[in-house]
């Protein structure tokens, strides 16, 4: 708990903190190409890992990787569509 005398000071500090956080968004992050690139890379890695798991007959690993690949592809569709 704070003493009542410090409450106005805390409000001023909170207001100053929120005002300093207001910054213009970086245009690099607004570009959907930058956001989707890591997902595409993850998709490629998962495809490779899935092929390796299937070749080694690691059924449980393959099932998990298929589920992960489906999840990544759904995220890619969400960005594109």
Straight-line distance between termini: 50 Å
Strand content: under 5%
Question: Which residue ranges are poorly predicted, with pLDDT under 50 across at least 5 consecutive positions?
Answer: none
What's the β-strand tally? 0
Basic shape: elongated
Average pLDDT, to the nearest integer? 81
The biggest beta sheet reads: none
- How large is the count of helical segments? 4
Task: Give Rg in angstroms.
Answer: 23 Å
* Helix percentage: over 70%
- SSE run: HHHH
Structural class: mainly alpha
Q: Can you describe what's shown?
A:
The chain has 81 residues and is mainly α. The mean pLDDT is 81. α3 (32-55) runs antiparallel to α4 (59-80). The chain has helices at 7-21, 27-30, 32-55, 59-80. It has a domain at 30-81. The chain contains four helices and no strands.
Which tags fit this structure?
mainly alpha; elongated; Rabenosyn Rab binding domain-containing protein; Rbsn_Rab-bd_sf; Rbsn_Rab-bd
Explain the layout of strands and helices.
Layout: H1 7-21, H2 27-30, H3 32-55, H4 59-80
Helix pairs in contact: 3-4
Short description:
InterPro entries: Rbsn_Rab-bd, Rbsn_Rab-bd_sf. With about 80 residues, the chain is mainly α. The chain has helices spanning about 5-20, 25-30, 30-55, 60-80.
């Amino acid at each position: 708990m704070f003493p009542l005398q410090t409450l106005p000071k805390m409000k001023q500090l909170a207001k100053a903190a929120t005002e300093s956080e207001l910054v213009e968004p970086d245009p690099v992050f607004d570009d959907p190409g930058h956001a989707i690139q890591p997902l595409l890379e993850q998709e490629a890695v998962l495809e490779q890992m899935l092929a390796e798991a299937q070749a080694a007959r690691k059924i449980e690993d393959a099932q998990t990787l298929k589920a992960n690949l489906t999840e990544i592809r759904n995220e890619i569709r969400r960005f594109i569509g």
